[in-house]
């Protein structure tokens, strides 16, 4: 072997550049494996084999055939390496070009693309004027591999492979990614310490890297506290990079898949609790969810959209992968049978509902026990609420502010009035319920003319720290509610004060009557002391404690204190009875009444005369009163 042979020189230079190059100096040949890791993940479409003749059919041909198939589009970042074998003939490079042969494991690269890449070696040898081109050719292959061999520029727009190759290619991609990641060193986005890849985890959707210890501590605590919304990437800027569209932002803000939590080393019991809470949240936000009418149960009815979590969590996580991907967009390979079954259920309008907790079968229309398909029923009156439900709704109405987007009740325990909805992540003002810009929510409190200007820290201690009845200053729907409560409270206070004033007026009237009687007694003492003493006795006997009812006290004060006299006899009494309107005259037969009735009539007459005297005494006109009007034939008014 001549030392000045250009083949030896080129193979030696190539071996120095690529240490992994395997060289056979005796036969002037070399073998090199080139990694295929496209800069942009290569889209690979896996379709079933549709040609029965053995010829390879593309996706376009499959569409023309119109056969039934289920396809899957997968973006692969790593593909099996490209194996290059080079043989340098004796006349290389002056008279003959190098012989190259390209192969791939698993036969993922089409044979036509391989022959095209092999022909590039001869084109380069011709273009460079029959010079050494091995390094240039290897560099050309590496650049083509970074572009994904321009397979996205094909008629199909992607690489089309049979579905049988999916398992091996996906497994190779995952293994290569993991090996590459474990070999690197990364700064944790939480503790900011450098960690080896084996101690870190890369988020599947966004690619942010955190150490496993930080992730486990945070997500375990979030699951324990029931914070489902916090189960997402911990990078504050995740999904908010400039240039991201709204659809991408919504996708990156979705909660983590349970498979990722298991890959982080989270215990299966914790992951199961997370899945249960996630399902419960979906049931509560779905307006079509039917709840058990039993007050001690209140469980959801069985639903095909949200099936119970099975005991085999791994199988459930595998099935949930397709459902999570279809939250915002429909996957290309989603079977149509699910949507068809759902439409059929809607058309059938089945009224039967079965509680998944207590297995009660009830009607979803009237919420009574199941009565069959042919019984007529009516929707339940929403006003028919139990005592517990009314108390719950009343507390929510009085102590929470609704989210302006999803109307979820929110209560503040402490802090400022910038709120973020736990359900839909909407930023809003706790005082007036106005929607706030998430990028700059505090401009609402700094804008003059706003109802919440300079009121960011009002109600800092929260609703529970407020004294009932204080002016809270809410605006919006809750402000009107608070205003109505204040008006009702003031009306009740005015009514109570009016009742107290009425009682005071009755007391003052009674006091005025007492003063009038005292004045009358003073006047009587001037001209008739015996009668004055009797009236004073009436006044003293009529005084009662203030605790008694005023009307009853007045009746006792006005009662005649003199003892009842026996019915009078004689001519004078007969004349009086004859002159009365109810007496018999003109020789008619006198109808005698019982003695008790006669005494009562006499008392009433004496009481009327006494009241008349009191009225004259109040007007200083007692001189016109004739004391003979108080008949003393029987000696009842004689003071002994």
Keywords:
Ubiquitin Conjugating Enzyme; Herpes Virus-1; 640 residues; 3-stranded mixed β-sheet; 4-stranded antiparallel β-sheet; 18 helices; 41% helix
Break the fold down into its secondary structure elements and pairings.
Layout (H helix, E strand, L loop, with lengths): L5 H12 L4 E3 L4 E8 L5 E6 L11 H7 L6 E5 L2 E9 L11 E6 L6 H17 L6 H13 L12 E4 L3 H17 L2 E3 L6 E3 L3 E3 L6 E3 H14 L20 H7 L5 H6 L4 H18 L27 H13 L11 H12 L3 E3 L6 E3 L23 H13 L1 E2 L6 E2 L7 E3 L6 E3 L13 H4 L29 H52 L1 H14 L7 H8 L13 H9 L15 H24 L22
Parallel strand pairs: 3-7
Antiparallel strand pairs: 1-2, 2-5, 3-4, 5-6, 8-9, 10-11, 12-13, 14-15, 16-17
Helix pairs in contact: 3-4, 14-15, 14-16, 15-16
Protein name: RBR-type E3 ubiquitin transferase
GO molecular function, one term: ubiquitin protein ligase activity
Pathway: Protein modification; protein ubiquitination
Question: In summary, what is this structure?
Answer:
With 640 residues, the protein is α+β, with helices and mostly antiparallel strands. The chain has 18 helices and 17 strands.
């Amino acid at each position: 072997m001549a030392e000045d042979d250009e083949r030896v020189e080129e193979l030696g230079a190539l071996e120095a550049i690529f240490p992994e190059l395997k060289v056979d100096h005796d036969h002037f040949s070399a073998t090199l494996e080139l990694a295929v890791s496209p800069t942009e993940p290569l889209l690979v479409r896996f379709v079933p084999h549709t040609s029965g003749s053995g010829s390879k059919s593309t996706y376009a041909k499959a569409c023309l055939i119109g056969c039934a198939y289920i396809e899957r589009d997968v973006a692969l970042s790593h593909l099996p390496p490209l194996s290059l074998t080079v043989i340098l003939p004796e006349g290389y490079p002056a008279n003959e070009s190098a012989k190259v042969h390209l192969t791939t494991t698993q036969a993922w690269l089409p044979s036509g693309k391989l022959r095209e890449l092999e022909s590039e070696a001869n084109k380069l040898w011709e273009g460079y004027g029959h010079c050494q081109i091995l390094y240039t050719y290897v560099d050309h292959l590496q650049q083509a591999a970074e572009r994904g061999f321009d397979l996205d520029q094909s008629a199909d727009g992607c690489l089309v492979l049979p579905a049988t190759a999916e398992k091996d290619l996906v497994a190779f991609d995952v293994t290569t990614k993991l090996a590459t990641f474990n070999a690197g060193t990364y700064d944790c986005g939480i503790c900011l310490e450098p960690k080896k890849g084996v101690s870190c985890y890369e988020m599947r959707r966004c690619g942010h890297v955190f150490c496993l210890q930080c992730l486990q501590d945070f997500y375990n605590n979030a699951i324990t506290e029931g914070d489902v919304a916090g189960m997402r990437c911990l990078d504050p800027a995740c999904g908010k990079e400039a240039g991201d569209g709204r659809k991408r932002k919504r996708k990156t803000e979705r909660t983590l898949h349970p498979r990722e939590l298991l890959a982080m080393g989270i215990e299966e019991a914790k992951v199961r609790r997370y899945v249960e809470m996630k399902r419960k949240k979906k049931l509560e936000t779905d307006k079509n969810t039917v709840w058990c009418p039993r007050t001690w149960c209140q469980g959801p009815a069985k639903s095909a959209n949200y099936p119970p979590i099975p005991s085999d969590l791994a199988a459930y996580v595998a099935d949930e992968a397709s459902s999570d991907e279809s939250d915002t967009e429909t996957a290309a390979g989603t079977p149509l049978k699910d949507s068809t079954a759902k439409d059929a259920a809607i058309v059938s309008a089945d009224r039967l509902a079965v509680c998944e907790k207590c297995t009660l079968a009830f009607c979803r229309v009237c919420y009574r026990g199941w009565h069959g398909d042919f019984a007529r029923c009516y929707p339940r009156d929403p006003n028919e609420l139990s005592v517990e439900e009314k108390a719950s709704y009343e507390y929510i109405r009085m102590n929470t502010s609704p989210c302006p987007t999803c109307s979820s009740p929110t209560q503040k325990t402490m802090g400022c009035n910038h709120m973020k909805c736990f359900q839909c992540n909407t930023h809003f003002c706790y005082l007036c319920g106005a929607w706030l810009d998430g990028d700059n929510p505090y401009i609402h409190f700094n804008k003059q003319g706003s109802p919440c200007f300079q009121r960011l820290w009002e109600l800092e201690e929260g609703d529970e720290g407020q004294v009932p009845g204080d002016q809270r200053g809410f605006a919006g729907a809750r402000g009107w509610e608070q205003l109505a409560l204040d008006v009702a409270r003031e009306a009740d206070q005015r009514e109570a004060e009016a009742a107290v004033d009425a009682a005071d007026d009755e007391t003052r009237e009674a006091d005025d009557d007492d003063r009038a009687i005292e004045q009358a007694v003073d006047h009587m003492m001037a001209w008739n002391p015996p009668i004055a003493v009797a009236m004073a006795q009436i006044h003293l006997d009529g005084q009662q404690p203030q605790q008694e009812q005023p009307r009853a006290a007045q009746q006792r004060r006005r009662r005649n204190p003199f003892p009842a006299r026996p019915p009078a006899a004689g001519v004078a009494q007969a004349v009086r009875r004859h002159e009365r309107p109810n007496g018999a005259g003109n020789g008619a037969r006198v109808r005698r009444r019982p003695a008790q009735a006669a005494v009562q009539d006499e008392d009433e007459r004496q009481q009327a005369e006494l009241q008349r005297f009191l009225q004259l005494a109040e007007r200083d006109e007692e001189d016109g009163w004739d004391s003979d009007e108080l008949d003393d034939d029987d000696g009842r008014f004689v003071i002994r």
